Amino acid sequence: MKIATYNVNGVNGRLPVLLRWLKEEQPDVVCLQELKAPQEKFPEEAIRDAGYYALWHGQKSWNGVAILSRKQEITEVSRILAGDQGDVQSRYLEAIIDGISVCCIYLPNGNPYPGPKFDYKMGWIERFKKHTAQLFKQGTPAIVLGDFNIIPTERDAYKPEKWVNDALFRVEVRAAFEEIMAQGWTDALRTLYPDETIYTFWDYFRNAYGRDAGLRIDHILLSPELAARLADGGVHRHVRGWEKTSDHAPVWITLKDA
């Protein structure tokens, strides 16, 4: 089974890129972030014609997450991260696909620091941390993936000293990520490539992609049941070089059969 996450940075504006990638790679399950489309504007027909079931949680102008499945139907579990009834941002979607709990997230950016956006990010992470702990304790196969907007360590950023006071790299944010990992989750890409430079995002400015001045902020976390099946993975970084593409590249893994 091939599972991927991709921040498309506008599902309608980048639809040709998304469809091209889906056709070339044919992942079995895909989590999308930053749809930037209200619920009724999601390109369901085009996605269906590409061979995918789709579940999505849209939002006008910003945010938005979706889960696609090529072979198996999708059973929705939740589209709300518990703990804040006033939170209306579309950043979470959870479903069951082929017996696996798939959690698609678009964690808040949090900039500028300090400020209310950073406070919202930290509150969101706390709610998320409680949920991942509950999910882990269930003991069922689970995968949590998406745009975390977190740079876990210095090796995950080009010139990390420039990011010290950025909300993606603040010490509080990295500590919270470590607390989530301490629950027992496996960072799939870092497990496969413990010593390599891995980036998943390159800014549009200052020729960041050409200079390989990137960040690793898109992550795939696996429960023990799935970590034992991890076979391969990587970043489709060439997609970042396509015309009119997202500033993120798709991140993928493959799992051996149970």
From TrEMBL:
GO terms for molecular function: DNA binding; double-stranded DNA 3'-5' DNA exonuclease activity; endonuclease activity; metal ion binding. CDD domains: ExoIII-like_AP-endo. The record marks 248 as: Interaction with DNA substrate. Keywords: Hydrolase, Magnesium, Manganese, Metal-binding. Mg(2+) binds at residues 7, 34, 147, 149, 247-248. It comes from the Bacteria. Residues 4-248 form the Endonuclease/exonuclease/phosphatase domain. The keyword Phosphoprotein does not apply. Its cofactor is Mg(2+); Mn(2+). GO terms for biological process: DNA repair. It holds the Pfam family Exo_endo_phos. The record marks 149 as: Transition state stabilizer. Belongs to the DNA repair enzymes AP/ExoA family. This is Exodeoxyribonuclease-3. The lineage of its organism: Bacteria, Pseudomonadati, Bacteroidota, Sphingobacteriia, Sphingobacteriales.
